[in-house]
Amino acid sequence: MYEPIRTKSVHTMAGTADFPHRSREEELDIQLAGHLAALLAVTDELRGLEPSASAELDAAAERLAEQVTRLRGGRPPVRAAVASAVGGGRGPVSAGLHQRAHALAGRALVVAASRADTAGAILAAQRMDAHAAAVAVAAAAAEPALTVG
Fold it and tell me: What is the DSSP string of 15-33?
C-alpha cells in the first residue's frame, strides 16, 4: 500500500557528530550561572540605591559572585561599578528592583534544584527570602497610616 522510503529524511541531520554537544549538567550550569549573574547585577544596583542595607547586600553580592565564578569554571562575572543614589533608596524603583531580584532568585532556585546544586539552591532561597521581606517593608511603608478617631 505504501512505498518504502528510499532516501534519508530531510529532517535527519547529516554528520551530527561534527559539533560538540553539551551535557544536561553543562546546560544547567550555564543557565544557573546566567540567573545568578543577573541577580548579582540587580543586587549591585540595589547596593547603590540602598546605602543603609549595604552590608547585607555586599555580603550577598560576594556570595553570588563566588557561585557564578564556580559555575563558569573560574571566570569571574563582569560587574558594574556601584554608584550611590543621592536621595536614599526606599521607593518604587527600589521595590521594583527587589521584585525583579525575587523573580530572578526564584528562577535560579528552580535550576539549582533541577541540577541538585545545594549551595546554589540555598543561596537562591536566602535571596528570595531577603527580597520578599524588602518588598513587604516597601509595601508597608507605602500604605497610608490608619488613624483612630
Answer: TGGGS----HHHHHHHHHH
